[in-house]
Amino acid sequence: MIRGSIAGLLAGLGLYAALRSAGFYGFTGRETEGLAILLQVVGDIYAVLLAFVIFVIWGQFTEVADCVMRECDSLTDVQRFSNYLDAESHAAIRRALSNYAAHVLRFEWDALGDGRADPQAEIVFSKLVASVVEANPQTDAQRQMHGRLIDMVREAGMRRGERVSKSLTRIPPTLVALVNTIAGALLFLVFLYPFHTWYMGGGGFLLVGALLLLANFVMMDTDNPLKGAWNVSPEPFNGLKT
């Protein structure tokens, strides 16, 4: 996609040179003031809309990172406090928790990055819940701790649900189309603007085009918090594998 966009910019530059040679910009030169006003209006609309979209997307990005940390903190508590149960129950919980973390890292993370839920992850997590619920405390102290562990794993389940939901949230396609349409209109107006020299016109067209491409890349890359050039790290789940 990036290569195609760069190729399109270069093709536009070639067309700009051809139109410049043909005297096309003698016609648009009579509309300099009108084009300047349109550039300012469309540029302002694009700037406001892009800022809004990036703000919302960045908020979602950080929310996913927070959800990962909260879920792993809850699971770490389950792992830590299971030490107060009998050895067999403790081993079963740790094994189920390790299997769940491994599954998230190997399968669910990529599935969510592709915009798909992973039903198998729900099954693996339910086995973790079952290992906690089915623990067999032997003493009053263990029974008390067992009740707390059930609350902890229930809280982990709620935080897991938040992580999955936030990870699957994407910017609506209609909003993407609107941002890109306004960006295209802005670039088109720069293309039409009658700069005094060809190198200023061509350079301005390439500069604005490159900036719009970069803005689009940042918007789309950040919109997917689990895949891309910059994404949320799954490292907290590595600490749960034993």
Top keywords for this entry?
242 residues, mainly alpha, 81% helix
The tally of helices reads 9
Radius of gyration: 27 Å
Number of strands: 0
| Poorly predicted spans | none
Q: Helicity range of the residues?
A: over 70%
Given helix and strand content, the structural type is mainly alpha
Average pLDDT figure: 88
β-sheet strand percentage: under 5%
Secondary-structure element pattern, one letter each: HHHHHHHHH
Described by the principal axes of the CA atoms, the overall outline is: rod-shaped
Report the span from N to C terminus. 41 Å
The major sheet is characterized as: none
What does the model show?
With 242 residues, the chain is mainly α. The radius of gyration is 27 Å and the shape is rod-shaped. The mean pLDDT is 88.
